[in-house]
Amino acid sequence: MSPPNPLSIDGRVFDPAEISDESRGFIASLQRLASELPKWYEIGAAEYRRLRAEGGTVLPGPTLLPSASDLSVPSREPNRTIPCRVLKPQHGQPAKAVFMHIHGGGWCLSDEKSHDQMLQEIADTHGVVCLSVGYRLAPENPFPAGPHDCFDVAEWLVENAKSVFQAPLAFVGGDSAGAHLSTLVALHLLRHADARFSQFRLKGLILLYGCFSLSWTPGVYSFARRVPSLVLDLEIMDAFRNAFLPGWSQATLENPDVSPLYADLASLRGKLPPALFTCGTEDYLLDDTLFMSMRWLAAGGGVDVKIVPGAPHGFISFPRATVGSGTAEGRQAMDDFLQKHL
């Protein structure tokens, strides 16, 4: 007898007829806004980062919370530290775990202060310490600088989370490029030559509309033919890739250290942590979520998949109450996953 399939996705979520009028209106408003604003590669990463910090881009600007604190984590490089942002539960109870968060932004934009509100909500709801990583950004610091910073913070947390936060590292996750980097972190730990890290087991990964193949999945090109620019388009994605991987070759794009979709996951059977994969149907990276979640499942990893009809790339960054955004559904999927695996 075949084992039961733990994953079930209702195919109706992919039907355009399932997109609500509110979501269609939200998408239309994003398209109008995207058409009026400069692309990041037109004005340069530094200027676009300034605009995003001021709320002058398609995605909402950050709200910095006084409850957050800054922490410097040692880097593998002498005399350099990695800036991190810490949000702790405000209810006074001891923390149950640490969630290492890695922000998105195409490996070029945003920073560790971009998700204060969401992370404080997670901290308070689930009793976890959230630590967001301020990894180095391209084009100033191309691959492998950003991944190396994330690896260094993960290793530091494996060794120090209990003494610093009185709770162990349990979850790693992020959105878009942050989901890509989170996956690389998990694989880095599992394949580490040092048993302190290779034998460490995460409780879960939270992978929100991640990019898992930098050679681009088929859906990227089909979306480019039919969907106007929203938060992402093919030109934006190509510019991100060129900044992160200058002078790339096809062999580079298919290297599992760059594109985890190509990783030998089967060799890690029995070791992969459970993973939540979330994406909207109006996202250039939908195929990435579908492909990577199936490979994770085939290699024996526990998988939860949440597909949100009508949601565009970046939808988790909007306020939970934003009508038509899909944010509430995405946040609820995160809450359910954290609750299940804590």
UniProtKB/TrEMBL annotation:
Alpha/beta hydrolase fold-3 domain segment(s): 100-316
Native source species: Blastomyces parvus
GO BP, sorted A to Z: triglyceride catabolic process
InterPro entries: AB_hydrolase_3, AB_hydrolase_fold, Lipase_GDXG_HIS_AS
GO cellular component labels: cytosol
Source organism, top-level taxon: Eukaryota
High-level lineage: Eukaryota, Fungi, Dikarya, Ascomycota, Pezizomycotina
PANTHER family given in the database record: HORMONE-SENSITIVE LIPASE (PTHR23025:SF3), TRIACYLGLYCEROL LIPASE (PTHR23025)
Entry's family note: Belongs to the 'GDXG' lipolytic enzyme family.
Name of the protein in its database record: Alpha/beta hydrolase fold-3 domain-containing protein
Gene Ontology MF terms: sterol ester esterase activity; triacylglycerol lipase activity
Gene3D superfamilies: alpha/beta hydrolase
Keywords: Hydrolase
Signal peptide (residue range): none
